[in-house]
Write a structure and sequence with these properties.
Layout: H1 6-22, H2 31-35, E1 37-44, E2 47-52, E3 56-57, E4 64-70, E5 80-85, H3 95-104, E6 106-107, E7 113-119, E8 122-133, E9 136-137, E10 142-143, E11 147-159, E12 162-171, H4 172-187, E13 190-191
Antiparallel strand pairs: 1-2, 2-13, 3-4, 4-5, 5-12, 6-8, 7-8, 8-11, 9-10, 11-12
Length: 192
């Protein structure tokens, strides 16, 4: 090629590698998981996130910053749901109290998995629970009946203006199919 130099080729290669590295979000999310994100976004408490393409935003609901319906997998009795809660600065209880409340919404023989990490400079606590979901609803969060073989993926981010709670729950196959999307959404969290 006329005018092509070794230095220009090296510069292009470095640029490609840098851009490829930028496609990975903190937390090790693969490009495939990040590709599951759409152009829609949500925000609360001084933070924003990208919404997975397959997830359908739902109308406003009390006490929720956002709600998303997740398509059910074949053979599952219903869709999954990801509810995002923000109660205000200093409101909604501490991280561990909320995780304990989520654990109490299940009958499970296993020990829920819990981990911590950072995303965009914000502390993040993750939890996974599986078992019979007691389907709490209403102002007193009373059980509406037991739902066998359910999973919950939860994330609590310490955002600039307070805690934001992400609660993905539904039939096990549906939640397993959406797990990569959930983690990609959480990895997309950024301060406003």
């Amino acid at each position: 090629m006329k005018g092509w130099t070794r230095g220009a080729g090296l510069a292009i290669m470095i640029a490609v590698l840098v851009l490829a590295g930028c496609n990975k979000k903190q937390g090790g999310e693969s490009g495939a998981n990040m590709a599951s994100l759409g152009s829609g976004t949500g925000s609360a408490a001084g933070t924003r996130w990208a919404v997975p393409k397959r997830w359908v935003p739902q109308g406003e609901r009390p006490m929720r910053a956002a709600t998303y319906a997740i398509p059910e997998e074949e053979g599952d009795p219903e869709k999954g749901e990801c509810a995002v809660f923000y109660f205000g600065s200093g409101q909604g209880g501490d991280v561990q109290s909320n995780i304990n409340r989520w654990i109490g919404q299940f009958e499970t023989s296993g020990v829920p998995a819990q981990s911590e990490r950072e995303v965009s400079g914000m502390k993040l606590t993750l939890v996974q629970i599986a078992g019979a979901y007691l389907a709490p609803a209403g102002p007193m969060m009373q059980s509406t009946g037991k739902k066998e073989n359910y999973r919950l993926l939860g994330a609590i981010v310490e955002a600039p203006e307070g805690l934001v709670f992400f609660k993905l729950v539904g039939p096990a196959r549906t939640i397993t199919a959406a797990e990569g999307e959930f983690h990609a959404m959480i990895a997309s969290l950024a301060k406003l």
